[in-house]
Known about the structure:
- The protein has about 500 residues and is α/β, with parallel strands linked by helices.
- The chain has 13 helices and 19 strands.
- A 6-stranded mixed β-sheet has the order 2-3-1-13-14-15, with helices on both faces.
- Helix 2 (about 60-70) runs parallel beside helix 8.
- The longest helix is centred in the C-terminal third of the chain and has 24 residues, at about 375-395.
Amino acid sequence: MADLRNVVNVSIIPPGRSLSRTNMNIVIIMSSVVGVLSSSNRTKAYIDLTSVADDFGTNSAMYEYAKILFAQTKNPTNSGGYLVAGYWRASDENVAATAGILTGSQVSESVVVGSLQSISDGSFDIDVDGGITQSVTGLDFRTIDSLADIVTILDTAITGATVTESDQKIIVTSDTTGATSAITLFAEGATGTFIGETLNLATGTGALSVDGVAATVLTAESKETAVTEALKEEPFKGAVFIDNPTDVETTSLSTWAKANDVIMYDVFDSASNLEKDITNVVWTNKLAGGENYRMAYRKDGNRKIAVAIMARLHTVNFNNQNSAITLNLKELSGIVAEAYTQDEINKAKAVGLDLYTTFGDLPKLLVSGANGFADNVYNFIAIKKFVQIDLFNLLGTTGTKLAQIDEDVNKIIDTAEKTLALFKRAKVIGAGTWNSPDTFGNVEVFNRNIETNGYYVYAQPLSEQAQSDREQRKSPSIQIAFKNAGAIHSVDVTIQYNL
């Protein structure tokens, strides 16, 4: 019978894989306690308090801080996020010596057992700790039924090392530790049937031999180094240190946070922090535009308020309508409100410190806008990341290509507009009048889009694009403007009356 492909050929082009949008609700609490966390295990993720208790204990600072996070009526875990416990090496850390280890690549139990059951003279050569080569011979596998049986035979045959199995891999570990601890790959001996290749423990089988290392002492690191290392493992967007940063550390962390699109939360407790003084790090951070470094004031120095504020903000699901929030006048579970004089309130507002105080018998967070607003920082990071990832996915999932023609440039514009529409539905972006003199494209079209949609996306005409950019296959320049919906934090009312 003739094959249909003689007449009709059909193929299916699979779609390209997409990157997930940035998760704005991953937050980290940094601790200096060695245990579950260390320099070799920087982070661990949690979605419930019980798991934190299991790892750190209910008497630990990490548990107490995590308890405040999970106590909030809405917290990051309610919106697709999670808590990360992170490690800061505050003092020198002793790292134990390690053993040399040979790890084979995965084997199929049924295949390897079937292959070895006919062998009664299995052999291989191996060096342990650089000593005299061990010529292992006469291994009888005729009665084995499992990978465990093979491991038992090897463990008995090799001197100075222990043989185990994990994830369908045979592992040979030296009984010593340190720089002289080492295990070589299996090599073919002079006699017998070589089994190194069958066990995937010989050269060319994917086996890996790693020498041991001597005990070392890792010197203390800065807080900035700690969050840098933690960020390599977890893409967190909010961060709090249990240990109080110094003024110098505050300045460096503030700059780091802005450079890495992370929001850091801190607490200040000195009366001098309320003053407009260049010796006050709160004031200098405000002057330096450190809006990614959120600052609260507590007379009692309770640093847990930073976790509560972080937990309340990192909760937005931008896919939901009307989901954007402001921190102003929010209640914080587990945090006792403090009383402040009007003078203290005025000073806090001026320097950029948030206060958790009472209005009558209601505890509420009173937000200062002097250092910008935390929700703006949060929302703007999300807009930038979402647009970046959505445009990357457009390029990466297009089965053929985006050509340097108007039709395909419009696909870029459409993709960006769909992303911005998401933020309009969430009430981050709102239609209104553009009050800045900075515009682009046709001014009438620009203003009409801002007044109608709250955003405008403009692509440089292809005819104006530099030939050098075209030859490098660059898109024409894309410009985006949007009207920030902001938030209402206060109301002034005038009442007139007539007799």
